[in-house]
Amino acid sequence: MKGGNVITVVVSVYNTGKYLRKMMRSLFDQTYGDFEIIIVDDGSDAQNAEECDRVAKEDGRIRVYHKENGGLSSARNFGMDQAKGEYVIFPDPDDVMENNYLEGLISGYQNADVDLSICGH
Fold first, then answer.
1. How far from 20 is each of 14, 17, 50, 117, 118, CA to CA, in Å?
2. CA-CA distance, 80 to 100, in Å (whole number)?
């Protein structure tokens, strides 16, 4: 582990701020709490960039980075470079997760001899 939380949640945002708050609420309600959230604003307009900053003020586990638009892969790679967790997940900003989502992923990974934990929908 790089130090810090076990899971890093990297969310790439490009003008999808209207969905972000609902997704973050689903993260705040997780039964597993040892995670950090990195929001990568990938060149959004001012309104969406400001929404990222407002959401970040709601929880101390959130860090926001604003960068020039480079596309989804660029934003996710940037987020991984900032990650402190041992495991990284990449939800989309319009995803809403069940409250045991992180717990299920981490327990499945840690309790089995696997290299990857994947969930369905």
1. 11, 5, 12, 24, 22
2. 23
